[in-house]
Specification:
The structure holds 2 protein chains of 2 kinds.
Chain A: H1 2-8, H2 16-48, H3 53-68, H4 71-92, H5 103-129, H6 132-140, H7 145-175, H8 187-198, H9 201-232
Helix pairs in contact in A: 2-3, 2-5, 2-8, 3-5, 4-5, 5-7, 6-7, 7-9, 8-9
Chain B: H1 2-7, H2 25-50, H3 54-94, H4 98-113, H5 116-126, H6 131-137, H7 140-144, H8 146-172, H9 175-183, H10 188-218, H11 230-241, H12 245-272
The chains are: A mainly alpha, B mainly alpha.
Chain lengths: 237, 278
C-alpha cells in the first residue's frame, strides 16, 4: 500500500508529475476540441435544416461519414493522411526534409470532426424545438436574419441543446484517451509508460480510470452550474 | 344541382409552371459543397484505382475478411453477454433496496464514466499483474488471451449502457399499465413479461441500435491490445507496406457495416411500430 502511494506520489521515483502532465494534456485537448466541434456542428446543423436540397445533402453526408467511422480509425486516417499530404505538399514546394504533423493538432482535428457530427444532430433537434413564430417575430421587428439568429434563436437554442451537448462533452473527454495511440502523452499514455516500467499495471491503469472518473464528476459540477445559470435567464413558468 | 355544380371540375388541373429557381447564395454554396464531396469521393475512387495492387489485395484481402469476422464475432458476443448482465444491473438500479441500487449505480457510473480503452487496458494489462493469484485459481488461461479480456471488458461496458437503456425504457411505460394489469389480477412477474416489457422494448429499440453501432466503432480499439480484428489487420497491413489505402479500405468496410446495420434497424423499427401509426 505504502509502495503504491510512493509510486503515484510526487517524490523521488514517483510518477505523479508525469501523470499530472498527462492530465493537463487530456484536459487541454478536450477544451481545445470543444469550440472547433461546436462551431462545425452548428453550421452543419444549419445546413441540415436548410430548404436547399444540395446543402442538406452535403451536411447529411458529413454526418453519415463521420458518425459511421470508428473514432480510432478517423484518428489514424487524419494523422497518417495529413502526414502524407503535408509531405507531398512539401515536395511540391521543393522542401527536402521530413515534415512532422503535430499529434495534438491531428487529435484535435479528428476528435473535433467526430464531435461536430454528433453535435449537429443535437443542434438540429434543438432547432426543431424552436417555434417558427420566433423567427417571424424577429423579422417583424426589423431584425436581419443574422441578427434574429444571434439575438433571438441562439440564446434559446443553447438552453435546449445544453443537456445533449453536456453528454457529448463527456463522450469527448473519454474519446481523448484514443490519442495515446498516436503518441500524444495524455493520461493513458503516461500511466501506460509507468505501468510498463514499474510492472504495476493494475495500479496505474486503475489510477487512469479513477482520474477519468474524477474529471467526469468535476465536469458534471460545471455543467450543472451552467445549466442553472442558463435556466435562470429563461422564462419563468 | 349545387352538388353536380361543385363536382364539375376539369379532369386535369393545369397548374402554372413553377418559377425558375433562383441561384441564391445558399444554392450556389450548397452545390459547391456537394461538388466538393463528389470530388473527394471521386478522388478516393481514382486513388484506390490507381493504387490498385493485385498482390496487395491478394495478400491482405483475406486477412481483412478474417478481421471483419473477428470484429463481428466480438461485437455480437459482447452485446449478447452484456444484455444478460444488464438485466440484474437494471433491476438493481430500480430496486428499492439501497445497497443494491448503490452497487448498481457505482457499476454503471464506473463503466460509463471511464474510457473503454482504459477499461480494456485495465483488464488486459492490469489483471496480468495478478498472474500468480490467477494461476492459483486456474483463471490465467482465460486472462492470458487478449480476445477474452476484450470480450470481458466490452461485455461489462455495454452491460452498463444497456442497463440504463433498459431502465429508461421500463420507466417510460406509464404506471397505469402496471395498475391495469394488477386490477385484472395478473401477477407482477407476468405483468412485467407480457405487458411492460413488450412496450418498453419498442422504446428501447433505437437506443439499442445506437449502442450496437457504438460497440462496432468502439471495437476497433482491441487492435491496440494485439487482437487482430479489422482494425488490427489494417494496422498490420499499413505497418508492412506503408500504403495509405490500407486505412481507406478499412474505412469503407466500417462505413458499409454501420450503414447496413442502420438500415436494418430503421426497417425493424418501422415494422415493429406499425400498429402504433394512426
Amino acid at each position: 500500500m505504502e509502495g503504491s502511494i510512493a509510486l503515484l506520489g510526487f517524490g523521488e521515483g514517483g510518477w505523479g508529475p508525469s501523470i499530472a502532465s498527462g492530465v493537463l494534456v487530456t484536459v487541454s485537448l478536450a477544451l481545445a476540441t470543444l469550440p472547433v466541434g461546436l462551431a462545425i456542428g452548428f453550421f452543419v446543423a444549419l445546413g441540415k435544416q436548410s430548404p436547399e436540397r444540395s446543402v442538406k445533402l452535403a451536411a447529411n453526408m458529413y454526418t453519415t461519414i463521420f458518425r459511421g467511422l470508428p473514432e480510432l480509425l478517423t484518428l489514424f486516417v487524419v494523422y497518417f493522411g495529413a502526414q502524407i499530404g503535408i509531405q507531398k505538399l512539401g515536395e511540391l514546394l521543393g522542401y527536402e526534409g521530413t515534415l512532422e504533423i503535430n499529434s495534438f493538432i491531428a487529435g484535435m482535428f479528428a476528435l473535433g470532426v467526430v464531435f461536430s457530427s454528433y453535435a449537429s444532430e443535437v443542434f438540429l433537434s434543438a432547432f426543431r424545438a424552436i417555434p417558427k413564430g420566433q423567427y417571424e417575430g424577429g423579422y417583424a421587428i426589423g431584425l436581419s436574419s443574422g441578427q434574429t439568429m444571434r439575438m433571438v434563436i441562439l440564446p434559446q437554442l443553447i438552453r435546449i441543446a445544453l443537456p445533449g451537448l453536456a453528454n457529448l462533452w463527456m463522450i469527448l473527454l473519454k474519446d481523448t484517451a484514443l490519442v495515446s495511440a498516436i503518441g500524444l502523452a495524455d493520461i493513458l499514455r503516461q500511466t501506460g509508460v509507468a505501468a510498463r516500467v514499474t510492472k504495476h499495471a493494475f495500479l496505474f491503469f486503475g489510477t487512469a480510470c479513477m482520474i477519468y472518473l474524477v474529471l467526469a464528476i468535476l465536469s458534471s459540477f460545471v455543467i450543472d452550474a451552467i445549466e442553472r445559470s442558463s435556466a435562470r435567464s429563461g422564462v419563468k413558468r | 344541382m349545387t352538388d353536380s355544380f361543385l363536382n364539375a371540375r376539369p379532369s386535369t388541373i393545369v397548374r402554372p409552371p413553377a418559377p425558375p429557381k433562383k441561384w441564391t447564395r445558399g444554392r450556389v454554396g450548397g452545390h459547391f459543397l456537394v461538388g466538393l464531396w463528389a470530388t473527394l469521393l471521386i478522388g478516393l475512387v481514382v486513388y484506390l484505382y490507381s493504387a490498385w495492387n493485385i498482390e496487395l489485395i491478394q495478400k491482405y484481402g483475406p486477412s481483412y475478411l478474417e478481421g471483419l469476422k473477428t470484429t463481428i464475432g466480438l461485437v455480437s458476443s459482447s452485446i449478447l453477454l452484456g444484455a444478460l448482465i444488464s438485466v440484474p444491473v437494471a433491476l438493481g438500479r430500480m430496486s428499492k433496496n439501497r445497497i443494491a441500487s448503490a452497487i448498481a449505480y457505482a457499476y454503471v457510473y464506473f463503466f460509463r464514466g471511464t474510457p473503454l480503452i482504459a477499461q480494456v487496458f485495465l483488464f488486459y494489462y492490469g489483471l496480468g499483474s495478478f498472474r500468480p493469484q490467477l494461476e492459483a485459481v486456474g483463471l490465467w488461461t482465460f486472462f492470458r488471451e487478449a480476445w477474452y479480456c476484450a470480450l470481458l471488458a466490452f461485455s461489462l461496458n455495454t452491460a452498463a449502457y444497456q442497463a440504463e437503456i433498459l431502465r429508461g425504457a421500463v420507466r417510460s411505460v406509464p404506471l397505469g399499465q402496471w395498475e391495469g394489469a394488477a386490477s385484472l389480477g395478473i401477477s407482477k412477474v407476468v405483468t412485467f413479461w407480457k405487458v411492460i416489457l413488450p412496450q418498453a422494448l419498442i422504446v428501447a429499440l433505437r437506443p439499442y441500435g445506437n449502442e450496437i453501432i457504438l460497440m462496432i466503432k468502439g471495437s476497433a480499439i482491441v487492435a491496440l491490445i494485439t487482437v487482430y480484428d479489422l482494425m488490427g489487420y489494417t494496422r498490420l497491413a499499413y505497418s508492412r507496406t506503408f500504403d495509405f489505402q490500407a486505412y481507406l479500405w478499412a474505412a469503407i468496410i466500417y462505413l458499409i457495416l454501420v450503414e447496413i446495420l442502420r438500415h436494418i434497424w430503421d426497417w425493424l423499427e418501422r415494422r415493429l411500430t406499425r400498429h402504433l401509426i394512426r
